[in-house]
Sequence to fold (167 residues):
Amino acid sequence: MRDLDELLLKAATEGDFAAASASLCRGASKDATTDFGFTAMHVAATAGHLLIVRLLIDARADVNRRDRYGISPLHQAIGWPKVMEALLDAGADVDSATTQGVTPLMSAAAFGEMESVRLLLVRGADLNRRDDRGSSAADAAGEKGEDEIFSLLDGLEHKPINFGGGG
Fold:
């Protein structure tokens, strides 16, 4: 079985749909992991291999499985909006946090991935979440010099909330 799991992980890394599908059909674990705790879903998401991600979702792989550092496939998909959408549609936790409290929104902000930031916001990411250092997504963007993302997030953090009471 371990050989099939290794074939699945290799196929997920390389984006080889046929090999990934064959590995699953022959009995590879849909949640096979590397020594670091990355699943096939993690490695496919990291490389933006949308077809592999969808194959794994269809096989009911865990979209919220975390590695030893608490990193989820959604964290790994930052910069690949279509992959992020597939994961979120399959039930990925938009606010999953690493062992240091870093959410996908914080990662997207720090990496300057505006499209990913917007997608996460539309999907309900919590702007007010703080990591273990007390930093928000806006702080992460500011620290990395991502001024456009910082302005967007900082403006949203300080926007008054209208509960429909008029005026």
